Each structure stands twice: as C-alpha cells, then as structure tokens.
Amino acid sequence: MSTAEDTPPTGTATATAQTTPETTAPETTAPETTAPETTAPETTKPGMTASRGGGTAPGGGATVVAAGPRRAPGLVSVAETRSTAERRPVEPAPAAGRPPAAPQRRAGAFWRLLGSELALTFRRPRNLLMLAVLAVVPVVVGIGLRLVGAPDDDLSGMIAAVAGNSLMLTFAAFSFLVLLLMPVTVSVVAGDALAGEAGGGTLRYLLAAPAGRTRLLAVKYLNAAVYAYAATAVVALSALVTGLVLFPAGPVTLLSGTTITMAEGLLRIALAVGYVGAAMSALAAVALAMSAFTEVSIGAIAATVVLVVLCQVLRAVPALDAVAPYLLPTWFMKFDAVLRSPVDWAALGEGLRAFGAYVVLFGSIAWARFSGKDITS
Amino acid sequence: MTAVTHEAGAPFGAAPPGAGGEAIVTRGLTKRFRGGQVAVDALDLAVPRGSVFGFLGPNGSGKTTTIRMLLGLVAPTAGEFSVLGTRPAEALPRVGALVEGPAFYPYLSGEANLRRFDAADPTASRGTAARRIAEALERVGLTAAAGKRYRNYSLGMRQRLAIAAALLGPRELLILDEPTNGLDPQGTREVRTLVKEIASDGTTVFVSSHLLAEVEQMCTHAAIMRAGRLVAHGTIASLNAGTAARVRVETPDAPGAAQVLRGLGLADVRVEEIDGADARARLVSAELGGHAPERLNAALVEQGVAVRGLAVARPSLEDVFVRLTGEGFDVDG
C-alpha cells in the first residue's frame, strides 16, 4: 500500500520532465512579474456572464486565448499560462481530425457486458454460497430418506418413490426447494441487481460509462435468469448424484403408475430443470422490478420473498381458489407434469405462459421505472 | 435533453456543433426535485473546449446535480444542454467522469473493477482493454496495487482508482467532481499535475471543487454557483478583475507615504494600523492600478519616505468567491 502511494506515477514524472525547461524559470520569477496585471481582460466581468447565453460565451473564451499569456501572475503561474497558450493552436487539430460521429458501438459489446455481469455474479462469494446450500439440501434429504427408508419398506407416496429409484430424488428435491429456498436464492441475486449497484454507487459509473439503461436492464435480467437456471441445475445435479449413490438405479415408476426407462427418466429430469428454471426466471423479473424501485437491495429481496410467501398463504386458503391461477408460485409445483405418462404438455405450456406473462409484466414495470429514474445515489 | 444547436453568427458558428466551440453548453437548465426543492435554477453555462473549467460553489449549491444532469443520470426539469455538441448518451464514451467520490465493487481488485467499467462502455474494445487499464493504473500510480482488492484500498487509493476509471479511453472531456477529496498533499499535487497534463493534450477538464486555491492553480475558467444559481462565470483572470490588487507599504512615515502614493495617482489610499507591531510603523495601502510596485518603491525612497516593507496583495479567487457567495461554507438550503 505504502509503496504504491509513495511512488510517484511514472506518467506524471515523464510529464514533469517534459515541461521542466519552461516551468522552472518562470515559476520562480512569477511573484515579481506584476506589470501585465492590469491588462487582464475587462470584457468578461463576473456577474455579467451569468445572464448571457451560450452564443456570446465563446467571446469570453476567445478573449482568453489572447489574454492567456498576460494573465495576472499572482493568480496563475506564468508556466501555466504559457502552456495554455501553447496548447491552443494544437486544439483545432484533434477537433478537425476527429471523426464527426461518436465512436462506433462495437459488435459483441452487449455480450461483453453480460459476460462481465456473469463473472461478477458467479465469482461473488455470497452467490456461490447460496448455490452450495442448494447443493447440500438434496444430499441431506437423500441421506434422511435413506435412513428412514432403510428399516422397513412400509412407506408411501414420494418417500417410497424416492427410496425405490435413484432419479426420483431430483423431483423430491425440487418439490422441497421450489417453495421457498430457490425463490429466496433467485430473489437475492435479482433483487440486488439494480438496488445493490445503486446502493454501492457503482450504478452511476456504469451509466456514465455509458452502459445504457435499457441495455443494462436487459443484461441484469439475463444474468438473473442464467443464475436461476444455474441454481436449478445445481439442485438437479446434486440430487441426481446423491440419488445414484444412495438409491437403486433402474426403470422409473411414474406417478401414473407407468414405468419408463432410466434414459427417459433423465430426459424428464432435463424437462423439469427447464420448467423450474423458467419459473425461477419469472420470479427474477419480479425481483428485478422491485430492485428498480429502491437503493437498498435487502428491501427488494425482502419484498419479493414476502410476495412469494404471501402467495403460498393465499393458495392455502380454499376460498381463494379463484385467485390461485394468477399467483406465480401456483405454477412452481407444476413441474410434476413431467412425471405423468405421457408428459402433461398442456400443464407445462400453461405454466410457461404464466411465466412469460409475469416476465413481460414485471419486465415492463422495471423498464418503465428504471429508464426514467433519477440516479441520485 | 435535446442538443443545443449553435447559432450561425456565433464565433464558432462556422464549425458544426461539437466540432469546436464548447464542450458543455447549458441553457436555462433547471432541476426541481420531487418535494419542490430547486437544486439547479436556470443555469446558463458555456465551457470552452480545451479549457480547465473550475465549477465552484458551497456544499448544496447544485454542482453535483448539474454534473449528474450532464452525465444523463438525472433528467432536467427544464432547459436544455449539450455535451461535446450532442446528447449525453452519444457523448459519454468520450467523457471520463468522477462523480461524488469513488464507487467500486469491494470484492474485486482494482484492475478487475476497471475491467468491469470498461465492459460497460459499448464503444470500448475488448482487445485493447488490458493495455488501456494498465496505462490508466500507471497514470495514477496504482500499478503496484492493481491486483489488490478494492476493499483494502485506502481512501487516497480509491480516489486514484476513480480517476483511473475516468481515463480508461481517449477522452475529449473529463468531468471531475472533487477529484482531490481524501488525498494527501502529495496526492493533491499529483492530481493537479495530472489535470494539467491531460489538459495539455487538448482535453477539456470540468472540475468541481470547493478548494479555491486549487481551482486557481489548475483552471483557466471558472463558474461560481450559489443556491442553484450561477453567480459568476468567466476566465479566472476576468473573475479576479472584479477585485483590484492593492499595494501595501509598511512605513514609519504613514502620512508621507500616503501623500506620495496619492501624488502618483493611486486610488483609495488608506492608512491602517498594524496589530502588535512597532507603534510608529503604519501600513499604507492603495489600489495598485497600472503601477509597477518597484517604481512606487523608488518614488517613495526618492521622496525620503522610509519603506520597511512593500507588498502587492493580489485578490484571490477566495475573495471573489466570498464576495459572491457570502462568508463561510454554510450549506445552502
């Protein structure tokens, strides 16, 4: 630390060396040189300029060009006025040589920003820790079921199914995690996406870079969706490996009683991952919208999680059955459609349409808010 | 948010907007926040290209809000402005900015942080990123700390990293909000040198500061804000021209000195006491006008007036500032 601060930057040193011939002598004599003081331009009096428009202002600038070397030495060193005078003629050259249009956007710039976003997300210890927790849960559930399932075979439903086949643990893990833990994980990443940047102040620098608001929002959403799929895949992989280690492999008996081959079982797991990932991506849109409204990421995260829990509560009230189809978490559990024989495509399609609707709705809310928001953090 | 078009008769009218003329133009720029607080009130600003422009004002006078508007972070309530002759979205790749202190990702290294912000610029080339980042770090003297996490940076190093971020690409305009905040005197000097160096390449530097001496040393132009309004705007010399320089003569023969100075035609000749000095010594001061101090000295001595000391008191920007914004750095409502 100290070395970096104590060592003068090489660039500065070089520049000093370049300017030394002109700076040393005039600076020492500067306090004595008094005569030109009165020749400072009278044309640009303070106060007068406050009311004038941009049109006349360059006159003041032009006056400076002439008056520069004659400026009061006590105020600005002669060295500086000299360098000011010297750099004036240089000025039009870059202006003339510069291409008239702004620098061109580079192909792949969007993907570069997305790559940066993904690297940031997947290198952040907090996000990795959450993935690790998600990976541990199926292992714990698997071991628990193994211990329970070992003594007697008098089991029912999901437990029996899991104990009977290694692939079923994946579906069991999803049905545990999709209710709260996976939504929380995704909410943390998506809810933090804008609010965290705003709270940390990095948002102003990203937008000044300029990242572009719509572009940044799109990148943030895609990033959250990738994380949602990563979380889903981590759960599936962990459950699959645990299941294969702890339970017998072989043909899978579905909820409808039919038996399918193990290969097809794996295919259906992939299908479930696709569906659950989409569900979590839809939730990510909700969290991102929340994130656009605050500079405190915990607020956006908490709001999303509270919404999820509230929906679960509403779903549990039989009198409110009519509302249930409009609640996002209602559709989270529908991945069990892949366990029907044949696959209940209609149910999956319905769920995916609901997710799409949520992405469009909350994506629009996020965009409407973020695109016009004053960034004051 | 619309770009300002220059009138054909303007001095730089021949050039297309943005090719010459001003790096920043604002007309009637106003920002009223929700709740009715007017942060910036009808601001007319013109920052000539190639200038080092000091943007001064007490805390809360609207400097940062103005900068945020220029960077497209805050939408103006009224008025128009242009940056490099165009809208902020198009100008920003050519603008380096330091706004309200450094802000980076604490868990990333300094270098990784710069890579992150470089990736956010759609015009920046990925191929040259490593070289540009290394150059920017070297320019602010952070090469040795490039791999260190930002979390472990000192305040001065953080400030340097923010300046490095502003220097990632070829810039035509640098907007630096309080660039020397948190820097030690050596760091402050280095920033000053850096600003001069950058300006000598033809880059316009727009620097907000409350350190007046600093602005005086760095800047060619300045604007002074008070409570959201512009109270002065012009070259440093023209701003100072409002307050005249005075010659101060320390002498045991105050009446004689005053007479000689009046005889030479100096205005506003005053005899003042010197606190705690020899009872017989007095201070005679007068507006210097166009006179050379060494001539005054010779004249006084010729007339038999003993001169113990002669000094020229230059008006500092601080005097001008205090005259325009009032005493003290109180926060404006």
From TrEMBL, chain A:
Chain segments annotated as transmembrane: 128-149, 155-181, 224-247, 267-289, 296-317, 351-370
Keywords attached to this entry: Membrane, Transmembrane, Transmembrane helix
Gly residues compositional bias, start-end: 52-62
Biased composition (Low complexity): 1-51, 63-73, 93-103
Keyword Transmembrane helix: yes
Ranges where the record places region Disordered: 1-103
Domain of life where this protein originates: Bacteria
UniProt xrefs under PANTHER family: INTEGRAL MEMBRANE PROTEIN-RELATED, MEMBRANE PROTEIN
Name by which UniProt lists this protein: ABC-2 type transport system permease protein
Organism of provenance: Nonomuraea maritima
Upper taxonomic lineage: Bacteria, Bacillati, Actinomycetota, Actinomycetes, Streptosporangiales
UniProtKB/TrEMBL annotation, chain B:
Organism whose genome encodes this protein: Nonomuraea maritima
Keyword line: ATP-binding, Nucleotide-binding, Transport
Annotated GO MF terms: ATP binding; ATP hydrolysis activity
Classification of source organism: Bacteria, Bacillati, Actinomycetota, Actinomycetes, Streptosporangiales
Domain of life, source organism: Bacteria
Domain ABC transporter intervals: 24-252
Pfam families linked to this entry: ABC_tran
Similarity comment text for this entry: Belongs to the ABC transporter superfamily.
PROSITE patterns, per database record: ABC_TRANSPORTER_1 (PS00211), ABC_TRANSPORTER_2 (PS50893)
InterPro entries assigned to the protein according to its UniProt record, in alphabetical order: AAA+_ATPase, ABC_transporter-like_ATP-bd, ABC_transporter-like_CS, P-loop_NTPase
Protein name: ABC-2 type transport system ATP-binding protein
Signal peptide: none
